């Protein structure tokens, strides 16, 4: 294999100049950059990144821990993060934790072994005290998750407000029997949404007849199961906060298959404003989360922390959510569709 | 921070024994393993993986290159690969290439820098001659992709047969004006599906009135666009091979919004048998790809290649696809749904 000296010789430049070009050193003329590029290409020379990284003490790689890549919310978030990181010439490696605390710790090791420069945690199943020691090795930024005791940068959505608006909308449509669906109760996202839901209910408490809660609902299949559960309840709810568009789609399609009228008999609110929410009939009223904005902020914060190394204090960046009303909660919307 | 000596002292064992436990050496009693685990836990000792990996010359990590994680086919594939790798105690890192040849090469560098032990390529936008040099650094396995000249293990689906069956089904329903939708023509998956499509058409060539082709259709949004394109054609096709369930869902929902009858006026076949294919009305006739089987085979092959280092020859593992007929192509299916 060819060496850096071969490249220097072919390009007619010093070894130092070639090294500068490879390491993106400033103050190298475009002409020299070009000559080095041509020589590298001709010789098939690949700079030794391992050695280079060691010198620079940077992996130029960030790890993102997500619970499940098959969840469209997370796959969209990954895509946005990857594009944002790309603008800083950083590689992104994605690690799926499947909501397993031990997987989270396994992947946090990537920071200890210097395989990555920082970790974006979109999954937090461990107690904070088990994650905190890894800060010794580099920055960790929380994304879409939240831990009260974590003194690190956190970028999130205002889930309380989002769930409050969605629930208020259902109550304003006259619903008095409500069902709240969610994923794991351990997640702060779920806890915050529940707070928002309960706040709206509290404001209408004289009218609300009852409310029910169902946990561990994540996808279309779960949505179908939710429909069959409620259809066998003594008092059947008339409105569902589904926690996600996939769950909402499962509920709606199964309800229609059983000849229920949506939204007259059953109103459903999703979450995410996925393309899927336009496919069901009626389309799904949902809460839009500005994933792109969050992703760009997370990467911006991470880049700052990698450079300044000052990441051991709490900073919260929060984005607002927006309710998008469609046919699954308001009847005359169907005419517009 | 505590050292391996501290662990040995607390466990009342020799340093060598502790090291053996950490490195999963055989012939260590369960009792000793347990004592080491307790001591490590008590001291909060984390084995130095970097040093350990160096000794073992293994990263215990595999990289998977996929074009887009937002495509449900790839996110399902990633999930299955991750679970299969997990059984071998391997970590998976996922790299999104966005169909960009330069991103592919960038991530292939992970092999050269020993950050990973092997690479699973589910994305191949480069000419094989540009990928081939990386084999010097470790095994590469092609997954769901194919390159005639690549002398490496390849695990794939029989796309030719799958597309042939789907097209034959449309022809048997009496359709004579066909549209073939696909992603990039550069992909071998697309080329093979086109071969299958054309083979079925050739068998019915006396009856076929015409066929059209549309490229770069990937998601629901593209499906909607396809509908509007065909609705303005001079001769409107009556049957569409959509290339994916998302594209099919976009076509169907837009057709229905414009008061077309599916399947009477327009029959649509998807690909993937995603949950989404059950949500549209009617449900989508689709081609089921056994993603799990493929994923487990890929990991099995990769593990073998990492150990034996004999990976520079062609081996093809192929799985059959299955047509699942639903309401988007056969009218009386709707009664069953």
Automatic annotation (TrEMBL), chains A, B:
Signal sequence annotation: none
Molecular-function annotations in GO: DNA binding
CDD domains found in the cross-reference section: HTH_LacI, PBP1_CcpB-like
Keyword Lyase on entry: no
Keywords attached to this entry: DNA-binding, Transcription, Transcription regulation
Chain segments annotated as coiled-coil in the UniProt record: none
A Pfam family reported for this protein in Swiss-Prot or TrEMBL: LacI
DNA-binding keyword on record: yes
Residue span(s) of domain HTH cro/C1-type: 3-46
Residues in HTH lacI-type domain copies: 2-56
Protein name per its UniProtKB record: LacI family DNA-binding transcriptional regulator
The species this protein was found in: Ectobacillus antri
């Amino acid at each position: 294999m060819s060496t850096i000296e071969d490249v220097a010789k072919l390009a007619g430049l010093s070894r130092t100049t070639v090294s500068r070009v490879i390491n993106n050193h400033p103050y190298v003329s475009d002409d020299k950059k070009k000559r080095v590029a041509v020589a590298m290409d001709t010789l098939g020379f690949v700079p030794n990144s391992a050695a280079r990284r060691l010198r620079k003490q940077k992996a130029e790689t960030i790890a993102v821990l997500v619970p499940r890549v098959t969840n469209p919310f997370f796959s969209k978030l990954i895509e946005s993060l990857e594009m944002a990181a790309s603008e800083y010439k950083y590689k992104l490696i994605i690690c799926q934790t499947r909501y397993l605390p031990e997987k989270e710790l396994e992947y946090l090791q990537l920071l200890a072994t210097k395989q990555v420069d920082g970790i974006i945690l979109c999954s937090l199943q461990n107690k904070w005290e088990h994650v905190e020691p890894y800060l010794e090795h580099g920055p960790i930024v929380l994304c879409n998750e939240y831990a009260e005791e974590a003194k690190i940068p956190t970028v999130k959505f205002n889930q309380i407000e989002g769930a409050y608006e969605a629930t208020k909308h259902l109550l304003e449509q006259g619903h008095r029997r409500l069902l709240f669906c969610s994923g794991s109760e351990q997640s702060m996202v779920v806890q915050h949404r529940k707070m928002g839901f309960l706040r709206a209910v509290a404001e209408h408490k004289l009218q609300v007849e009852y409310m029910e809660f169902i946990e561990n609902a994540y996808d279309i299949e779960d949505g179908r199961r939710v429909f069959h559960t409620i259809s066998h309840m003594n008092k059947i709810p008339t409105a569902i906060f589904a926690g996600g568009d996939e769950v909402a789609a499962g509920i709606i399609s199964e309800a229609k298959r059983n000849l229920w009228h949506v939204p007259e008999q059953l109103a459903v609110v999703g979450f995410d404003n996925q393309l899927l929410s336009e496919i069901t009939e009626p389309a799904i009223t949902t809460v839009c989360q500005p994933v792109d904005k969050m992703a760009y902020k997370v990467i911006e914060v991470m880049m700052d922390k990698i450079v300044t190394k000052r990441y051991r204090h709490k900073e919260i960046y929060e984005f607002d959510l927006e309710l998008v009303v469609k046919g699954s909660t308001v009847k005359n919307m169907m005419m517009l569709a």
